[in-house]
Amino acid sequence: MFSRFIVATDLSPASFAIVNCLGGLRAYGAKQCLLLLCLDFQQAASTALSYSTAPLEDILGQQKEILGKSGFDVETRILPGFAKREINRVAAAESYSLIVVGSQGRSMVGEMLLGGVAYRVIHSARKPVLLVRLEMKEDAESVCVQATRCDFSEHVLFPTDFSENADHAFTYVEKLATDGARRVTLLHVQDRARIDPHLTQRLDEFNEIDRGRLEKMKERLQNQGNAMIEIELCYGSPFDEITRLIRERNVNLVVMGSQGRGFVEEIFLGSVSHNVARHADAPVLLIPAVHRGTAGNAGKTHARSFV
Q1: Considering the entire predicted model, what is its pTM?
Q2: Among 15, 88, 163, 246, fewest CB within 10 Å belongs to which?
Q3: pLDDT in tens, 83-113
Protein backbone atom coordinates (compact mmCIF):
# COMPACT_ATOMS: atom_id res chain seq x y z
CA MET A 1 0.00 0.00 0.00
CA PHE A 2 2.77 2.43 0.90
CA SER A 3 5.46 1.02 -1.36
CA ARG A 4 7.23 4.37 -1.89
CA PHE A 5 7.39 6.96 0.86
CA ILE A 6 9.13 10.23 1.72
CA VAL A 7 10.69 10.92 5.11
CA ALA A 8 11.08 14.65 5.81
CA THR A 9 14.27 15.15 7.81
CA ASP A 10 15.87 18.18 9.41
CA LEU A 11 18.92 16.20 10.63
CA SER A 12 17.95 16.80 14.26
CA PRO A 13 18.04 14.13 17.00
CA ALA A 14 14.26 13.97 16.60
CA SER A 15 14.62 13.03 12.93
CA PHE A 16 16.97 10.21 13.94
CA ALA A 17 14.26 8.99 16.30
CA ILE A 18 11.85 8.91 13.36
CA VAL A 19 14.07 6.94 10.99
CA ASN A 20 14.79 4.45 13.77
CA CYS A 21 11.08 3.64 14.17
CA LEU A 22 9.93 3.18 10.58
CA GLY A 23 10.60 -0.54 10.26
CA GLY A 24 6.94 -1.09 11.14
CA LEU A 25 5.95 0.30 7.74
CA ARG A 26 7.28 -2.83 6.07
CA ALA A 27 4.15 -4.63 7.28
CA TYR A 28 2.22 -2.39 4.89
CA GLY A 29 4.39 -3.01 1.85
CA ALA A 30 6.83 -0.10 2.20
CA LYS A 31 10.00 -0.70 0.17
CA GLN A 32 11.47 2.49 -1.29
CA CYS A 33 12.24 5.58 0.76
CA LEU A 34 13.29 9.10 -0.19
CA LEU A 35 15.06 10.83 2.69
CA LEU A 36 14.44 14.49 1.88
CA LEU A 37 16.15 17.54 3.39
CA CYS A 38 14.83 20.95 2.33
CA LEU A 39 16.80 24.15 2.87
CA ASP A 40 15.03 27.47 2.57
CA PHE A 41 16.74 30.05 0.42
CA GLN A 42 18.64 31.68 3.27
CA GLN A 43 19.92 28.32 4.47
CA ALA A 44 20.78 27.26 0.92
CA ALA A 45 22.74 30.49 0.41
CA SER A 46 24.67 29.92 3.64
CA THR A 47 25.48 26.38 2.55
CA ALA A 48 26.61 27.61 -0.86
CA LEU A 49 28.93 30.17 0.76
CA SER A 50 30.56 27.37 2.72
CA TYR A 51 31.35 25.65 -0.62
CA SER A 52 30.34 22.26 0.80
CA THR A 53 27.28 20.21 1.68
CA ALA A 54 29.51 17.46 3.06
CA PRO A 55 28.38 17.85 6.71
CA LEU A 56 24.73 17.59 5.67
CA GLU A 57 25.39 14.66 3.36
CA ASP A 58 27.29 12.86 6.11
CA ILE A 59 24.32 13.04 8.49
CA LEU A 60 21.93 12.06 5.70
CA GLY A 61 24.19 9.09 5.08
CA GLN A 62 23.87 8.03 8.70
CA GLN A 63 20.08 8.16 8.49
CA LYS A 64 20.16 6.31 5.15
CA GLU A 65 22.15 3.53 6.79
CA ILE A 66 19.58 3.20 9.58
CA LEU A 67 16.72 2.92 7.09
CA GLY A 68 18.72 0.50 4.96
CA LYS A 69 19.16 -1.81 7.95
CA SER A 70 15.36 -1.80 8.32
CA GLY A 71 15.13 -3.25 4.83
CA PHE A 72 14.36 -0.16 2.74
CA ASP A 73 15.90 0.91 -0.56
CA VAL A 74 16.88 4.50 0.31
CA GLU A 75 17.63 7.59 -1.79
CA THR A 76 18.77 10.87 -0.20
CA ARG A 77 18.16 14.32 -1.61
CA ILE A 78 18.87 17.93 -0.58
CA LEU A 79 16.62 20.54 -2.17
CA PRO A 80 16.48 24.34 -1.92
CA GLY A 81 13.06 25.74 -1.16
CA PHE A 82 10.41 25.81 1.53
CA ALA A 83 9.87 22.38 3.07
CA LYS A 84 6.08 22.43 2.91
CA ARG A 85 6.07 23.22 -0.80
CA GLU A 86 8.92 20.96 -1.85
CA ILE A 87 7.84 17.90 0.14
CA ASN A 88 4.32 18.01 -1.25
CA ARG A 89 5.55 18.84 -4.77
CA VAL A 90 7.94 15.88 -4.88
CA ALA A 91 5.35 13.52 -3.41
CA ALA A 92 2.83 14.44 -6.10
CA ALA A 93 5.23 14.70 -9.04
CA GLU A 94 7.00 11.43 -8.34
CA SER A 95 3.99 9.40 -7.19
CA TYR A 96 5.03 8.70 -3.63
CA SER A 97 2.24 7.09 -1.65
CA LEU A 98 3.08 8.44 1.82
CA ILE A 99 4.81 11.36 3.54
CA VAL A 100 6.31 10.79 7.00
CA VAL A 101 6.89 13.73 9.33
CA GLY A 102 7.54 14.10 13.04
CA SER A 103 5.79 16.13 15.69
CA GLN A 104 8.68 18.06 17.21
CA GLY A 105 12.41 18.71 17.02
CA ARG A 106 14.81 21.52 16.27
CA SER A 107 16.98 21.15 13.19
CA MET A 108 20.69 21.77 12.99
CA VAL A 109 19.86 24.84 10.90
CA GLY A 110 17.62 26.22 13.63
CA GLU A 111 14.11 25.66 12.28
CA MET A 112 11.35 23.69 13.94
CA LEU A 113 10.75 21.46 10.89
CA LEU A 114 9.41 18.61 12.94
CA GLY A 115 7.05 21.02 14.64
CA GLY A 116 5.60 23.98 12.77
CA VAL A 117 6.54 22.95 9.23
CA ALA A 118 5.22 19.44 9.82
CA TYR A 119 1.72 20.78 10.37
CA ARG A 120 1.98 23.03 7.33
CA VAL A 121 2.87 19.94 5.30
CA ILE A 122 -0.24 18.22 6.66
CA HIS A 123 -2.37 21.25 5.90
CA SER A 124 -1.63 21.29 2.17
CA ALA A 125 -0.88 17.60 1.53
CA ARG A 126 -2.51 15.74 -1.32
CA LYS A 127 -0.92 12.46 -0.25
CA PRO A 128 -1.46 10.56 3.02
CA VAL A 129 0.73 11.90 5.82
CA LEU A 130 1.97 9.82 8.74
CA LEU A 131 2.70 11.99 11.75
CA VAL A 132 5.08 10.12 14.05
CA ARG A 133 4.73 11.01 17.71
CA LEU A 134 7.94 11.97 19.49
CA GLU A 135 8.69 12.22 23.20
CA MET A 136 11.46 14.29 24.72
CA LYS A 137 12.89 12.97 27.98
CA GLU A 138 15.31 15.05 30.02
CA ASP A 139 17.51 14.24 32.96
CA ALA A 140 20.31 16.09 34.70
CA GLU A 141 22.86 15.17 32.04
CA SER A 142 21.10 14.80 28.69
CA VAL A 143 17.99 15.13 26.55
CA CYS A 144 16.70 12.05 24.75
CA VAL A 145 14.15 12.12 21.92
CA GLN A 146 12.35 8.92 21.01
CA ALA A 147 9.42 7.90 18.85
CA THR A 148 6.47 6.19 20.51
CA ARG A 149 4.14 3.31 19.56
CA CYS A 150 5.90 2.39 16.34
CA ASP A 151 4.33 -1.03 15.79
CA PHE A 152 1.84 0.47 13.37
CA SER A 153 0.01 -2.82 12.80
CA GLU A 154 -0.73 -3.72 16.44
CA HIS A 155 -3.86 -1.63 17.10
CA VAL A 156 -5.45 0.73 14.57
CA LEU A 157 -8.16 3.21 15.59
CA PHE A 158 -10.46 4.60 12.90
CA PRO A 159 -12.75 7.45 14.03
CA THR A 160 -15.41 8.16 11.43
CA ASP A 161 -18.09 10.80 10.97
CA PHE A 162 -19.50 8.89 7.97
CA SER A 163 -18.62 11.79 5.68
CA GLU A 164 -17.45 11.32 2.11
CA ASN A 165 -13.85 11.85 3.10
CA ALA A 166 -14.14 9.47 6.05
CA ASP A 167 -15.44 6.86 3.62
CA HIS A 168 -12.37 7.47 1.47
CA ALA A 169 -10.10 7.11 4.53
CA PHE A 170 -11.84 3.82 5.35
CA THR A 171 -10.53 2.32 2.10
CA TYR A 172 -7.06 2.71 3.61
CA VAL A 173 -8.21 0.95 6.78
CA GLU A 174 -9.39 -1.92 4.59
CA LYS A 175 -5.92 -2.12 3.04
CA LEU A 176 -4.32 -2.06 6.49
CA ALA A 177 -6.54 -4.95 7.54
CA THR A 178 -5.62 -6.85 4.38
CA ASP A 179 -1.90 -6.24 4.91
CA GLY A 180 -1.87 -7.54 8.47
CA ALA A 181 -3.25 -5.09 11.03
CA ARG A 182 -3.91 -7.24 14.08
CA ARG A 183 -6.62 -5.19 15.77
CA VAL A 184 -8.91 -2.43 14.47
CA THR A 185 -11.34 -0.31 16.48
CA LEU A 186 -14.08 1.53 14.59
CA LEU A 187 -15.28 4.62 16.44
CA HIS A 188 -18.10 7.09 16.00
CA VAL A 189 -18.73 9.88 18.48
CA GLN A 190 -22.18 11.40 18.73
CA ASP A 191 -21.18 15.03 19.04
CA ARG A 192 -22.85 16.48 22.11
CA ALA A 193 -22.41 20.03 20.80
CA ARG A 194 -24.50 19.21 17.72
CA ILE A 195 -27.15 17.12 19.46
CA ASP A 196 -27.75 18.81 22.81
CA PRO A 197 -30.33 20.15 23.52
CA HIS A 198 -32.54 20.18 20.42
CA LEU A 199 -31.86 16.63 19.16
CA THR A 200 -31.36 14.83 22.48
CA GLN A 201 -34.69 13.02 22.14
CA ARG A 202 -33.40 11.44 18.92
CA LEU A 203 -30.14 10.11 20.39
CA ASP A 204 -31.40 6.52 20.55
CA GLU A 205 -32.44 6.76 16.91
CA PHE A 206 -29.02 8.14 15.92
CA ASN A 207 -27.28 5.40 17.88
CA GLU A 208 -29.27 2.67 16.15
CA ILE A 209 -28.53 4.07 12.69
CA ASP A 210 -24.85 4.64 13.35
CA ARG A 211 -24.27 1.32 15.07
CA GLY A 212 -25.70 -0.32 11.96
CA ARG A 213 -23.21 1.61 9.84
CA LEU A 214 -20.33 0.54 12.07
CA GLU A 215 -21.50 -3.09 11.90
CA LYS A 216 -21.43 -2.98 8.10
CA MET A 217 -17.90 -1.55 8.19
CA LYS A 218 -16.88 -4.28 10.63
CA GLU A 219 -18.22 -6.92 8.27
CA ARG A 220 -16.23 -5.44 5.38
CA LEU A 221 -13.03 -5.55 7.43
CA GLN A 222 -13.65 -9.11 8.56
CA ASN A 223 -13.74 -10.07 4.90
CA GLN A 224 -10.36 -8.40 4.31
CA GLY A 225 -8.10 -10.22 6.76
CA ASN A 226 -7.74 -11.74 10.20
CA ALA A 227 -7.79 -8.58 12.34
CA MET A 228 -9.86 -8.48 15.51
CA ILE A 229 -12.51 -5.80 14.86
CA GLU A 230 -14.17 -3.81 17.64
CA ILE A 231 -16.88 -1.13 17.60
CA GLU A 232 -17.15 1.91 19.86
CA LEU A 233 -20.10 4.32 19.84
CA CYS A 234 -19.69 7.25 22.24
CA TYR A 235 -21.46 10.47 23.19
CA GLY A 236 -19.53 13.62 24.02
CA SER A 237 -16.75 15.76 22.56
CA PRO A 238 -15.21 13.96 19.54
CA PHE A 239 -11.70 15.17 20.34
CA ASP A 240 -11.98 14.16 24.00
CA GLU A 241 -13.42 10.73 23.22
CA ILE A 242 -10.87 9.95 20.51
CA THR A 243 -7.88 10.92 22.65
CA ARG A 244 -9.34 9.06 25.63
CA LEU A 245 -9.59 5.84 23.63
CA ILE A 246 -6.06 6.30 22.32
CA ARG A 247 -4.79 6.44 25.91
CA GLU A 248 -6.99 3.74 27.39
CA ARG A 249 -6.69 1.19 24.55
CA ASN A 250 -2.99 1.73 23.84
CA VAL A 251 -3.67 2.56 20.19
CA ASN A 252 -0.64 2.36 17.88
CA LEU A 253 -2.02 4.13 14.81
CA VAL A 254 -4.95 6.52 14.29
CA VAL A 255 -6.35 6.78 10.77
CA MET A 256 -8.49 9.82 9.99
CA GLY A 257 -9.78 11.73 7.01
CA SER A 258 -8.39 15.24 7.11
CA GLN A 259 -11.15 17.14 5.34
CA GLY A 260 -14.41 15.82 6.70
CA ARG A 261 -15.95 19.26 7.23
CA GLY A 262 -14.85 20.99 4.07
CA PHE A 263 -11.85 22.89 2.80
CA VAL A 264 -12.80 26.33 4.15
CA GLU A 265 -12.82 25.21 7.79
CA GLU A 266 -9.70 23.16 7.18
CA ILE A 267 -7.77 26.33 6.31
CA PHE A 268 -7.75 27.23 9.99
CA LEU A 269 -6.61 23.77 11.11
CA GLY A 270 -9.53 23.72 13.51
CA SER A 271 -10.89 20.31 12.64
CA VAL A 272 -10.89 17.37 15.01
CA SER A 273 -8.46 15.48 12.77
CA HIS A 274 -5.82 18.17 13.02
CA ASN A 275 -6.36 18.61 16.75
CA VAL A 276 -5.89 14.87 17.20
CA ALA A 277 -2.76 15.03 15.04
CA ARG A 278 -1.35 17.74 17.31
CA HIS A 279 -2.23 16.22 20.66
CA ALA A 280 -2.71 12.44 20.40
CA ASP A 281 -0.29 10.08 22.14
CA ALA A 282 -0.08 7.83 19.07
CA PRO A 283 1.04 8.22 15.44
CA VAL A 284 -1.69 9.63 13.18
CA LEU A 285 -2.22 8.78 9.52
CA LEU A 286 -4.15 11.59 7.82
CA ILE A 287 -5.88 10.81 4.52
CA PRO A 288 -6.67 13.88 2.39
CA ALA A 289 -9.86 14.23 0.41
CA VAL A 290 -9.95 12.85 -3.11
CA HIS A 291 -10.81 16.25 -4.61
CA ARG A 292 -9.29 18.78 -2.28
CA GLY A 293 -10.82 22.20 -2.47
CA THR A 294 -13.74 21.40 -4.76
CA ALA A 295 -16.89 23.22 -3.88
CA GLY A 296 -19.06 20.12 -4.07
CA ASN A 297 -17.42 18.31 -1.19
CA ALA A 298 -18.44 20.62 1.62
CA GLY A 299 -22.14 19.92 1.29
CA LYS A 300 -21.87 16.15 1.17
CA THR A 301 -20.84 15.46 4.76
CA HIS A 302 -22.96 13.71 7.35
CA ALA A 303 -25.28 16.01 9.32
CA ARG A 304 -23.36 15.31 12.55
CA SER A 305 -19.85 15.21 11.08
CA PHE A 306 -16.86 16.07 13.23
CA VAL A 307 -13.59 15.27 11.45
Answers
A1: 0.86
A2: 88
A3: 889 999 999 999 999 999 987 533 433 334 4
